[in-house]
Amino acid sequence: MAAAVEFAKSPAEVLRVGPGFSLASVDPQSTPGYTGNKADGKALLEAQDARLAELQEKLFAEGRAGSEKRLLLILQAMDTAGKGGIVSHVVGAMDVQGVQVSAFKAPTDEEKSHDFLWRIEKQVPAAGMVGVFDRSQYEDVLIHRVHGWADASELERRYAAINDFETRLAEQGTTVVKVMLNISKDEQKKRLIARLDDPTKHWKYSRTDLAERAFWDDYMAAYDLAFEKTSTDVAPWHVVPANKKWYARIAVQQLLLDALEGLDLDWPKATFDVAAERALVADS
Amino acid sequence: MAAAVEFAKSPAEVLRVGPGFSLASVDPQSTPGYTGNKADGKALLEAQDARLAELQEKLFAEGRAGSEKRLLLILQAMDTAGKGGIVSHVVGAMDVQGVQVSAFKAPTDEEKSHDFLWRIEKQVPAAGMVGVFDRSQYEDVLIHRVHGWADASELERRYAAINDFETRLAEQGTTVVKVMLNISKDEQKKRLIARLDDPTKHWKYSRTDLAERAFWDDYMAAYDLAFEKTSTDVAPWHVVPANKKWYARIAVQQLLLDALEGLDLDWPKATFDVAAERALVADS
């Protein structure tokens, strides 16, 4: 098998949200940093699965040995953008024992009676773990802004609270990878219709999807503002063009690989006398 | 590719713990109900991954649509018996979004200040989910019996409490699959030595493994008693010979497949007018 076509430029750089960023400047159909085609992308995804799994196991092993390192992937997107596919096809390559997926839906009455970060804090990954947030604290500055459930000053409080929260996570040893999967409004229409045309997918369709779709432009504005306020050095945002599912998957895979590589992970050294222990086992 | 060699007899039957069962009667090297060899077993495992994943997705989908069905796999075993391998190689075929793995280690001070089922209850799977317990409430009648941390009357209370608890789970819609992975004492020695001979596995070795190994016969007696007291009609035990990892994996896979098949799962029907919704999306 030929070597897989790799990224020419790192997604961590080309997809990173910097000052002055605007969603309007990104083509959801594009494949930044990658010159390969769909077949190349699929081959790359598969070729890197084992590496991703090994890095995750090392992270888990270090956690057992006392390291505080952990990883948190935050996924935000409009409906049908492919969050679920990222979790099953990218994160799914890791060992399920070391991964904790948290899907944040409409808050319960109890959750609503607390500050918005209360339910989030309970789901942050423990040392050695990979946490995945399918939606997150950002709902509280996205859907809440779009529908006016929070006023301007409350939104400002939340942006600042999120930045404080993520700074604290980073100080605790958490590498935070924030990803917005960016599909076009036309692509969403195609995917919603495809769901409706497939009886095995009807359960994924909700009439509220269509209601939220009507606020598309407001959501884009809310995302742009959230990026401006919360794409920080400790926890930058990445906007991943997602009309091509295969591209979104390799881009997120590469972001995870880069994040894990950056942790300088290794198998923990034995804290006991290996030869002595081996002799004891052999005699047992 | 030739069709995979399937089980000649159902593991749910041949591995089920019935009246008068004794661990001494099971050969950990055997492959009950399966006539194929290692290569056949590996091929079967892979061949059935997609079916397992589809059933799990249907379970998840039904949960979204209001069904109370859920699945709980309880794994108990001596160290190195392969619990982790079952989770990563069998459960790992399912979508990580629909699976919740809970590893029960030595209880915290807070957990100890509650009844033994307190921490267990918090980890039972929600509707539509597959829960996996890596160790479980059974530690409280196994290690506690072996080391005399609970006296005879307290152990009796716990067996009864466990049966009440599992009956309640079943009444709530939970299918409970209880598995003890059964390795021989010699096989454990080989595996402990293999861990010590591989620096990438040192983190998996604990000096307490050797201490517990010294109580092997007491553990076997504690397991036999636990089986006698808690292998019920609603939640029977299955003892899976586990010296051959490939066999243990296909046996547990088949137990999960049978459990899920028994739930008569299907894709939920749409609760909305599909054609009308499609027209609205097309116009949006």
From TrEMBL, chains A, B:
InterPro entries: P-loop_NTPase, Polyphosphate_phosphotransfera, PPK2-rel_1, PPK2-related. Keywords: Kinase, Transferase. This is PPK2 family polyphosphate:nucleotide phosphotransferase. The keyword Cytoplasm does not apply. The keyword ATP-binding does not apply. Residues 38-262 form the Polyphosphate kinase-2-related domain. It comes from Paenarthrobacter histidinolovorans. NCBIfam families: PPK2_rel_1. It holds the Pfam family PPK2.
